[in-house]
């Protein structure tokens, strides 16, 4: 490793390690730079996980985020994508133990961010499948849109996430049950659509490369009463597939 490369690595490590041996770490100017870097990381996490911030409050969030930054500093200079492991951190964070839905909400925040920054391509419309005979339709293999993400949780995280993003209180009569959603992007706006477990199963099979016929069979094996036609139509409607 060159002297410059070693200096750059030591500099980056010292930004998040007070106990390091970097030669400039004890200087006041470096402390200011370190604080600025920490603030940038906290601001990025706050922007990337808005539903979590809404649920726990800004002070709680930034205190937790500071611990996360120390444990998992950015690996990419693009801070707008920072925090890919933040949900896992929340799941193992003792102060969040009384909020069993929080890690799931963080995962959904993350998927929404991934959908937002995904490649911009068109999407398959229902008309793209009309006119195919049953055999040709069954043999068709669809590609997921780059912005499509699948979400499933054992908690009502979708309902909680949507309320948090809208800035409204979660209903007192919230039913504690598993929820699924499909995350898509239409006209540069991320859309989180609650879906049935059978719809998600169908999309998983299609995303894994199965033909429509095989994906339907896989879904019906687990969900015998699944309305496959309606499930597929709903996925086409939200732009889940690439052309």
Folded structure, characterized:
This protein is mainly alpha-helical and 243 residues long. It has two domains: 1-99, no CATH class; 111-243, no CATH class. It has helices at 3-15, 28-48, 50-56, 58-71, 86-92, 102-117, 134-139, 157-166, 197-207, 212-222, 228-237, and strands at 149-153, 179-186, 189-195. The protein has a three-stranded antiparallel beta sheet. Helix 3 (50-56) packs across helix 4 (58-71), helix 3 runs antiparallel to helix 6 and helix 9 (197-207) packs across helix 11 (228-237). The mean pLDDT is 90.
Labels describing this entry:
mainly alpha, 2 domains, 11 helices, three-stranded antiparallel sheet, DUF2063, elongated, 243 residues
Estimate nothing, just give the exact number of structural domains. 2
Biggest sheet descriptor: 3 strands, antiparallel
Please tally the β strands and state the result: 3
Arithmetic mean of pLDDT: 90
What would you call the shape?
Answer: elongated
Distance from first to last alpha carbon: 46 Å
Order of helices and strands: HHHHHHHEHEEHHH
- How many helix segments? 11
> What fraction strand?
5-15%
Helix content: 40-55%
Pairing-aware structural class of the strands and helices? mainly alpha
Rg for CA atoms: 22 Å
Low-confidence stretches: none
Going across the biggest sheet, name each strand in turn.
Answer: 1-2-3
InterPro entries: DUF2063
Pfam family, one: DUF2063
């Amino acid at each position: 490793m060159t002297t410059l490369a070693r200096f750059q690595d030591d500099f980056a490590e010292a930004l998040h390690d007070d106990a390091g041996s970097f030669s400039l770490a004890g200087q006041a100017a470096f402390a200011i730079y370190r604080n600025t870097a920490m603030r940038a990381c906290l601001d990025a996490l706050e922007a990337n996980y808005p539903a979590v911030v809404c649920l726990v409050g800004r002070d709680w969030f930034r205190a937790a985020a500071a611990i996360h930054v120390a444990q998992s500093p950015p690996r990419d200079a693009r801070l707008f994508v920072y925090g890919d492991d933040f949900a896992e951190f929340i799941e193992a964070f003792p102060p969040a133990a009384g909020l069993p839905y929080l890690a799931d909400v963080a995962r959904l925040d993350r998927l929404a961010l991934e959908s937002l920054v995904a490649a911009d391509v068109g999407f398959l419309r229902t008309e793209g499948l009309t006119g195919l005979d049953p055999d040709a339709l069954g043999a068709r293999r669809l590609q997921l849109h780059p912005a499509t993400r699948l979400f499933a949780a054992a908690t009502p995280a979708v309902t909680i996430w949507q309320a948090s993003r809208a800035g409204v209180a979660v209903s007192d009569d919230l039913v504690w049950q598993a929820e699924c959603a499909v995350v898509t992007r239409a006209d540069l706006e991320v859309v989180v659509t609650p879906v049935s477990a059978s719809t998600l199963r169908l999309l998983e099979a299609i995303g894994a490369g199965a033909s429509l016929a095989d994906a339907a069979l896989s879904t019906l094996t687990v969900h015998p009463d699944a309305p496959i036609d309606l499930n597929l139509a709903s996925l086409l409607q939200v732009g889940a597939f690439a052309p």
